[in-house]
Amino acid sequence: MTDGEWSSQQVEDKIAIALAAMIAPGRRLSVVTKVLHMKRPALIPVCDRLVLEQLGAPAGVDHDPAASAAFIGHVRREGRRNIDGLRAVQDRLGREGRSCSLVRIFEALVWQSHPGVWYHKLALLINEWLDGEPGTAEGALG
Predict the structure, then answer these.
(1) Measuring CA to CA, which of 19, 62, 76, 115 is 20 to 30 A from 44?
(2) Which residue has the higher pLDDT, 127 or 77?
(3) DSSP for residue 57
(4) Pick the residue with more confidence: 19 or 121?
(5) Side-chain half-sphere of 54: how many Cα atoms within 13 Å?
(6) Domains of the chain by residue range
(7) Do residues 64 and 71 lie in contact, with contact meaning Cβ atoms separated by under 8 Å?
(8) 39 to 4, 60, 64, 117: CA distances (angstroms)
């Protein structure tokens, strides 16, 4: 969707309406966007806590449908800024027989880059081992 189509169709307002109908106690943005992503994978990113933190969402955004819709607009703008790289990843996945929306690719890259993701911590530890830093497990490995 072009920027003109996004604004002329008032997409964020429509997303806010959908979010307002679904956000409830025990069902915040992370759950709601997982459901909506299944319905509209090219439009709605999965916005869990890690994605919110990585992209600097304001506190309480996951309770407020209008703020959540604005955040989804922010995700879209950041994805558009990185569209060439996202398309390259999408093309690579396609050559491997897998398909994935640009929105999902962007959200997944943002999610996995969060320092709280367990394998991010493991990668840091492995890099430390490979660099042979003092106090690492290198001695135990060799």
Answers:
(1) 115
(2) 77
(3) P
(4) 19
(5) 20
(6) 3-114
(7) no
(8) 23, 25, 21, 26
The token pair that represents 32 in the structure block: 């709601």
Tell which residue, 89, 70, 90, has the closest CA to residue 78: 70
Question: What token pair was written down for 113?
Answer: 């880059």
Whole-number pLDDT of residue 116: 78
DSSP string, 90-133: HHHHHHTT----HHHHHHHHHHHTSTTSHHHHHHHHHHHHHHT-
Q: Report the amino acid identity of residue 122.
A: L
- Is the overall model pTM greater than 0.85, yes or no? no
In Å, how far are 27, 41, 61 from 67, measured between CA atoms?
16, 20, 5
- Tokens in use for 17? 């309406």
Q: Which of the 8 DSSP states describes residue 33?
A: H
What does the pLDDT average to over 74-95? 93
Greatest Cα-to-Cα distance within the chain, rounded to the nearest angstrom = 63
Cβ atoms of 47 and 30 within 8 Å: the answer is yes
Alpha-carbon span 9 to 47, nearest angstrom: 22
